[in-house]
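Hey all, sorry for the wall of text incoming. These are the two entities for the joint prediction.
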Amino acid sequence: MGMTSSQRLQETLSHREPDRVPYVLPATMHPSREMGLTIKDYFSRPGNVVAGQIRLQKKFGNDILCCYPFAALEILAWGGEAIYFDDGPPNAGAPIIKNPEDILRLQPPEIKGNPALQGILQATTDLKAIVGDDTPIAGVIVSPLSLPIMQMGFEAYLDVIYERPDLLEHLLRINTEYCVAWANSQLQAGAASIMYSDPAFSPSIMSPDFLERYGLPIAMNVVSRIKGSVMIHLASGKGMSVVDEISRAGFIAMSASAEEDLASLKAVCQGKLGLVGNLNALEMRYWCAEEVESEVKKAIAQAGPGGGFVLSDNHGEIPFLVDEEILLGVAEAVHHWGQYPLDWVTSDEA
Amino acid sequence: MLKLNTLSKRLVDALLHIDEEECTMLLKNLLSQGNDLSPLEDVVIPALEHIGLTWEEGRISLSQVYMAGRICERVVEEVFLTACSSRFDHHPRIAIGVIEDHHALGKRMVISALRSSGFNLLDYGHGLKAADLVERTLRDQVDILLISCLMLTSAVRVKDVMEGLEKTGSRTVVVVGGAPFRLAPQLWKEVGAQHMGRSSGEAVRIVQTLTENRIWE
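and here's what came out:
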């Protein structure tokens, strides 16, 4: 009898080879189509999200489930708005911090009684009651460093970073406390681990000085206070040059960008950090059946040996426009080529 | 990699160190050597293009590119555009917008880079419907329309803009840019755009080339 998804993930994140490569296809919006709902309606009820996650597991065989709907939800939680689209993820609406000085008056949301956050907690608890301990549910937080991109708009955030470090530090302090509380609430509701979504930690986005001064100390602080294991997701951003920082912060795994060489990344992470990725979710739309198989094979050959690898996309969200047939092809290819031991990797078939 | 002259190298260095004073001094010296805008072409455009390429190669961050653009825009405005008349009188007419997406940083960076290079452009904002963008483009008789995208859903709607423009026989040249086009290199052709810029610096180079080719004639 094979391993459960939880056992498979635990084994691979301990840098040992499980029965097969675990995988997750985060097609978070796709179930709405099958359920005949708009994306907005789908995400409006925790019950829909629970039913959608079960559908995703049945259809694609995901080894990880997740009730977190979309990043802009954070802004709903902070009293702002989300702007919905028919065929893509919602955007954050107008910034909740309209002027830099607003930071001084900013109050973080109380998790208890906040409808947006309570909806996720409810969905997590309900999903956990269905899947038990066999399939892990990932909780998600947007990091203290990346939240301001939505709270005030990226441009205004960058201006504050360079022009008002006093306000920046105040904002990061508020966000840190919120993130710790939000992560632990999700763990309490039934999440098995936390994904720390932090595109701003990528050196593609922020300068090394900024990461050294703010990114690393904040990550260390937050991770040490979260009562469970935490992985960092750079949302397509490159991470090769900050592997040491990610490891020092206490993360157990990191996302792998489609713009980086997975084999090189594996070489520096081997035995130290698990890797999650790195199928190109934007290019996937164009893949024929042969390409689906070869892309999956390539990723497994580069990062699968020795464990420490979860096959997924590079962004943490499969675009709504990606056809389900492609995702079914990915799942089939992992089942075929991802069985350990990966003897074919060293043979001619690789 | 683009070969830079000494002045461009100094400008790149000053911009990446966020040294506005040094940028101002450098450009004021250039202006004192002649009362025209040729230094923008010889020094500023290559510097911005170099910064864009350096970001693509992963050697600097987006925040550094953004700040470099902002500083350069401010200094060029102060030093050159108050001292000289506009670089171009009537053409090219340039506009920029973001369709059905509220991520506006890329647009802001392209605006800074183009203004730093002496181009004027209309900012149509973000969250636009494709039909609105077509209507404004036609109304303003835009020669070059730049569309910045972060989300795939926004990028695929460029096709609607292209169809809308084609229906009217418009000769507007459409240039797209942003993450979806970088990560899916065939996408810009699929949506029918004429050009794709991988960075704000490359956007300037494309606009510069279209201008040299006098595409409005």
